[in-house]
Write a structure and sequence with these properties.
Layout lengths: L17 H15 L1 H5 L2 H18 L5 H12 L3 H9 L5 H18 L4 H6 L3 H5 L7 H7 L8 H26 L5 H19 L6
Length: about 210
């Protein structure tokens, strides 16, 4: 299987897309020239590092390569994603173009990246396919409790906790989502928009 990311129509030019570019290049080298792939060891480990850093930043767990791919789709703004956020389910030509891009991402999901472990003599991919992160939600509840004295601090801590829980919920659903599931992606985009609204909301404790 060759990674066809250059054939995407709507989903292009990603923020945080450097890992995608590097990984698709490695996938294509694996399919075409394994000896040339072995010379890209630094590129491989840099990509794994990038995935782990994003996992730490956003709370990814499980197969963080899959979660990363969904993260790119959910957070990308284009004609399809903006129309979905405004009107919900949409039909027509834009829907067909989106299906083309989602199928390309599905192919990336289906590629077994653990083959790189054998090529580079490592277990990195096995680890990131079942990545475990600390329970950040419990940290939010417990680590700052002694510092909270005023009502304002309580409101801030409560809001941070709610937002983190909702973010983790979105990431959990992202990890399990089939990229060809258009309705599922639309629901994730709606959840992301609701989270953005929540971040602007003032929470008051009477």
């Amino acid at each position: 299987m060759l990674a066809r990311i250059q054939e995407c129509i709507l989903y292009r030019g990603f923020s945080n897309g450097e890992i995608l570019d590097d990984m698709t290049e490695l996938i294509n080298l694996y399919e075409a020239d394994e000896e040339a792939l072995k010379a890209r060891e630094d590129q491989f480990f840099k990509s794994v590092n990038g995935l782990v850093e994003l996992a730490g930043m956003y709370g990814f767990s499980g197969n963080i390569w899959h979660t990363y791919l969904t993260f790119l789709l959910v957070n990308h703004e284009n004609a399809f994603s903006m129309a979905s956020e405004i009107r919900g389910a949409i039909e027509g030509s834009i829907n067909e173009l989106a299906k083309n891009d989602f199928q390309i991402f599905k192919e990336l999901y289906d590629f077994d990246i653990t083959v790189f472990d054998k090529v580079f003599g490592t277990v990195c991919c096995k680890v990131i396919c079942d990545y475990q992160t600390p329970d950040e939600n419990s940290k939010l509840f417990n680590t700052r409790i002694r510092e909270i004295k005023t009502a304002h601090e309580q409101e801030k801590a409560l809001k941070e906790t709610i937002i983190r829980v909702k973010k983790n919920s979105i990431e959990e659903h992202s990890a399990k989502l089939d990229p060809t599931d258009i309705q599922g992606l639309q629901k994730l985009m709606e959840a992301k928009r609701a989270l953005q609204d929540l971040e602007k909301l003032h929470i008051s404790i009477n």
